[in-house]
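Worked problem 6 (solution included).
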Amino acid sequence: MTRALIVIDVQESFRARSEWELINNPKIAEPVGRLVRLAREAGDLVVWVLHSEPGSGDVFDPALGHVRLMDELDRHDDEPLVLKTSHNAFTSTNLQQQLTERGIRELTVCGIRTEQCVETTTRVGSDLGYQVTFVPDATATNPITRGGVTLSSDEIVQRTVFALADRFATIATVDELERAAADAAR
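Solution. The predicted structure is:
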């Protein structure tokens, strides 16, 4: 096993926020679940990452009960669960150590928020020497307004893909990864 699927922040905390109604991919657990199935079938490591802000009193405070996987997802006991307090999954965790100990060299990255935690983890993973695949249709985000200008979720995803492609990551859809797995099985 040299590959790992990193599932970032697909957690109930986001559903507990009022902004959830504006999310571009409210059924994110479905494409993420497909990636989890593919990884497990290939014998790849699945790593679950949750964002946590202890003592904050908001939806990311573990004391409130929202810092858990979305109900549609199931973690196997042998799959690592990493709690992070930074935007990327490496800085405030032992993720790199866990991946190194298992000989992981390739990462597939998905989760919530496309341009924030998922993109940042992709960039840091690339800088650390991992071969990274970014799966935009297994990410989710909200529109962002700054200075009176709003970028739609679709514009944010497109910008993220353009920023990452061929520099920090290979870009692939869930369908493309499923087809590649089916072809490899033949």
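Discussion: Strands lie at 3-8, 45-51, 81-84, 106-112, 131-140, 144-146, 149-151, 170-171.
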